[in-house]
What we know:
Elements: H1 3-15, E1 19-25, E2 31-36, H2 41-47, E3 49-52, E4 66-71, E5 77-78, E6 88-96, H3 107-120, E7 124-136, H4 160-172, E8 177-182, E9 188-193, E10 196-197, H5 198-218, E11 222-224, E12 238-246, E13 249-250, H6 263-283, H7 289-293, E14 302-303, E15 305-306, E16 314-315, E17 329-331, H8 340-356, H9 374-379, E18 383-384, H10 389-398, H11 400-406, H12 408-426, H13 431-437
Parallel strand pairs: 1-6, 15-16
Antiparallel strand pairs: 1-2, 3-4, 4-6, 5-6, 7-9, 7-10, 7-11, 7-12, 8-9, 12-13, 12-17, 14-18, 16-17
Helix pairs in contact: 3-8, 4-5, 6-8, 6-10, 8-11, 10-12, 11-12
Amino acid sequence: MNRQEDYVLRTVEERGVRFVRLWFTDVLGFLKSFAITPQELENAFSDGMQFDGSAIEGYARQQESDMLAHPDARTFQLLPWRPGDEPVARMFCDILLPDGSPFEGDPRRVLKRALDKAVEAGFSFFAAPELEYFYSKSTTEFEPLDTGGYFDLTPLDAASDLRRQTIYALEAMGILVEYSHHEAAPGQHEIDLRHADALAIADSIMTFRLAVKEVAMESGIHASFMPKPRTEYAGSAMHTHVSLFEGEHNAFFDASDNTGLSKIGKGYIAGLLAHASEMSAVTNQWVNSYKRLSSGHEAPGFVCWGRHNKSALIRVPAVKPGKEHAARIEFRAPDSACNPYLVLALILSAGLRGIEGNYELPPEASDNIHDLTSEERRAVGIKPLPHSLHDAINLFQESEFVAEVLGSHVHEWFLRNKLDEWNAYRSYVTAFETNRYFPIL
């Protein structure tokens, strides 16, 4: 038993923790959990806790259902929304096969494999997500909690207390927040996490989504990460800032280049641009995700990059003098309903491919891409992202790159689920069709 596991056992005893929740995710990024008593902790650390994997989307078939959840002691935290006199803790788990070997279908494992390759190449990978979501008065239909707009700090921003309480909960669990504010649409809000290593960030995103919902629920409010709940409103994104470091040196930065980007930074962006479309089924995995991408509202619908261009898929934020360590790129495709382990694994792997393969960075896009005509975009080589989940699935299915990063198990299960979703959607008669066609046809 290591030092961190000893710390967990002592803390559980000293704080009178009644239950420890073991957390993990399915292939779609839904949080799964079961609870154990403190008496089971030592066994969990040494051998893992057995559970039925056949009940989890993307895990195992019934004939091979037994799996082990092995808690990562570094992720131990008390849940701040539980009663203080009955403390409950949580730990994220790595999923193992009965023989103790890693389960290749575990999304956390997919990210760990990608991070191992980065380490082999001499890099450490950091990320910082901007998470957008909606507050609604109703759980069954979207009724915005407020009528505020971007950066509003007025009585219109009725959810400021909810944001503040959520930040308190996150910080109590060791998750640092950089910004929070009202977003562009009524009822829409954003909380940005401070950069950290990618595995910790993926765990934090999963915790964040639960914390937002738990805090809202305590006030009788529903929080939703649906990418676009209403046609006329901006959608909810998860703009993700990423950087590579070589030791203490930011590998993306080069003061001598007019863009501020090093050769490594340019290769990384080129790789991400080259593989963005085939990654789209993962970065934007729901039918509804493509309503956001096709609507404008600063959502990236086209594959291009720019230094200060918020209509571009990849934005390179300006670096303040003396702050070279903050050099980064912002990948604007993902929405906040994605599986963060798979998304970060793909973002990292695409960038590494660009570096290793010496991909050429295309010219910078300086115009608002949405204002250009189709002919103008074609003339400068700017291609669209997939317009629908169906288009994204086709590219995903054919992608050797995505299959390699995700592994055959995750790739197969994810594809099967998305095909089921698309087939259900394409045969569903919507209110739009009924309202538009029934009276006239």
